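User: Quick sanity check before I run a bigger batch. Here is a single chain. Can you write out its predicted 3D structure?
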Amino acid sequence: MSSRFQLFIFLSLFFLLSGCAHVISKDLRGKVDPSLSFREVIQNPNAHQGKTVIWGGDIVKTINQKDGTTLIEVFQRPIGRRGEPRGTSASEGRFLVLAEKYLDPYLFKQGRKITVAGEILGEEIRTLGEMDYRYALLTSKQIYLWKEYYYYPTPYPPYYYYDPWWGYPYWWGFGFGVHYHRHHRH
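Assistant: Done. Predicted structure follows.
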């Protein structure tokens, strides 16, 4: 094999494997008790104070507090190998994350996916609708905010448009996102 081909294979594997790395640091992952489930903690958060967990889900709301901290309410979802909350409808409840700094609610907005490594502080009872709800409260050690992805469906590909600036048609579409390609005039 040529050295260029070997370099290509090495770089391809490097980028492939680096895309599969967990978003929470190895040090924090080492402090987590994998046998401790979200369901177990939510039943009695005070019994698990001081333990480190990694949880994920969708942000419900972000509240900046007078003391400069930020409180994030999260709708829990199961997380995958990399720590990304899965898009399933399965959830075992909600939890609160206390960040010891200001986090902008524009970025940490409702619906964004988040993964948090944190230490369990205990429980906090808050009103949810017309009921009192027991939240597990974490102090954050590491927060990962997932990128937003947009999907623009294209029902009948391809679409042709005329671009007056370039003077020739271009097309986009194939049903799985916006594709943009300019045809060369012959």
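The chain has a mean pLDDT of 80.

User: Great, the batch can go ahead then.
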